Amino acid sequence: EVQLLESGGGLVQPGGSLRLSCAASGFTFGSYAMNWVRQAPGKGLEWVLSISGSATSTYYADSVKGRFTISRDNSKNTLYLQMNSLRAEDTAIYYCAKAPGSYPEYGWFDSWGQGTLVTVSS
Amino acid sequence: NFMLTQPHSVSESPGKTVTISCTGSGGSIASNYVHWYQLRPGSAPTTVIHENHQRPSGVPDRFSGSMDKSSNSAFLTISGLKTEDEADYYCQSYYSTNWVFGGGTKLTVL
To answer: By the 8 A CB rule, do A117 and A11 touch?
Structure first.
């Protein structure tokens, strides 16, 4: 059974940094692309970043380009999201989501974690 | 930019059938697959339809997906509504290295 467990969320001041992790199990982690999707309070889902299974390709939404970095450690079955220069509008539940293949261009998400809440506020 | 538009909310009675629309703008919705996700408060999102009409294992056949090129729209239909189907539903498509979501539809089963 695929399991995705996010951690690392919390309260951070504007301009601060935070690193989220997503521990994966139940599948061959390095064979699948992974993604981060967020949901701001009272808002809809927003795709944020994607990374291929081998980490050779990454994609970023314009809203986070230059501030957020996606990475993965296939030896630890873990996905990361490094968030810098955080803004109030980054406040959201951040979900890690698995793609059905090794390339993000498969274009959809077949498994999701429960999410971790990031609050950016002074 | 390619966008997907959904109705903000729909409601229907248990046992009935409801259809949620997802209309594309800025491009042809038929150019790429449409996928549907269910979000219940406090639960992880789940995929209910992928690639226009495919149902993941474990999703009941009460859920079905379709597309109408003439209206540039995709549809999620849920038949035999149950109270447990009450949730937010999002359509999503991949368009030019951008994963686009609709704004979501709140389904109330009353």
So the answer is: no
